[in-house]
Amino acid sequence: MNERLTKDNRYSQNLTLPCYDTDARFLLKPASFMDLAQELAYWAAQELGFGYDDLQKHHTAWVLSRMQFRFRNTPRWRDEVTLYTWHKGLDGIFFLRDFELRAKGDTNLADKASALVSCTSSWIVMDTQTRRLVRSDEVLDMVPSNTQCPDDALKEPAPKVTMPRGVTPVPAGTRQVSYADVDIIGHTNNARYIVWAMDSLTYEEAAGSPVKEVRINFNKETVPGETVELFRHSEPLDGGMRHYIEGKSAGKSCFCARIDY
Asked: Can you point out the beta strands (E) in the chain?
């Protein structure tokens, strides 16, 4: 996989984008970017001593809480790219981790406009036995400050996402959590929520034009057998469209996404 850790604590991986990560227009799918980012985050944390295996010793695990990513120049099937990630330390209850996807050979990391995809994410630590949040101060000893990189892929942390006030979202189907949805922690994988969200749109809405930006919050985990009701609201946006999709289980929000085209 040709991964490496740089002196400024960025972890990178060279990739050739496969056909199964792209759509009928050969463009990288949003959920596929999330899959790539999640996998690299695991490897980067492991390299620095606070990865999956390290946290499992304490019956804990990293859980993605918020993510925002912007397609500046959407990569395509067979493109040779480099995905970078680095963590930025604690912000309130969240540990921040950024990502940049760049054309292979583009090493001018100070030029943010040249990135293909820019992303910021917010993570918490969950007790895998109680399924509850672990206080951030209990995790700090495992995440040394000298492993941070202060750079920003996107200037602000991923924001809170909710349905706009005053709108009446329309029902957009249901999904039952099944085998294909569940990850190594035993709950619905973060990228599956974006699959569900985009599948709640018509094919023309989802594939008719490139995605510009995705924002998503993960509000409550869902587990095998659980049914998630989907609701959506759409509105015009500067010649494109903005779609809000929320998933609820037993009346409680599981996730809320905003997708801009």
From this structure: 3-5, 11-16, 60-71, 80-91, 94-103, 117-127, 170-176, 213-218, 227-237, 240-249, 252-260
Measured between alpha carbons, how far is 61 from 121 in angstroms, rounded to an integer? 16
* Separation CA 173–CA 149 (nearest Å): 42
Kindly state the tokens that stand for 7. 């002196």
Angle (nearest 5°) at CA 122 between 116 and 124: 145
Residue ranges of alpha helices (H) inside 145-221 are: 190-199, 203-207
Burial (CB count within 10 angstroms: exposed 0-12, middle 13-18, buried 19+), residue 165: exposed
pLDDT tops 60 at residue 160 = yes
Place of tokens 């991964």: 3
Smallest CA-to-CA distance from 185 within 80, 8, 64, 46 is with: 64
The partner residues of 138 in beta bridges, in order of sequence, read: none
| 127/67 Cα distance (integer angstroms) | 21
Length of the chain, in residues? 261
Is the pTM higher than 0.85? The answer reads: yes
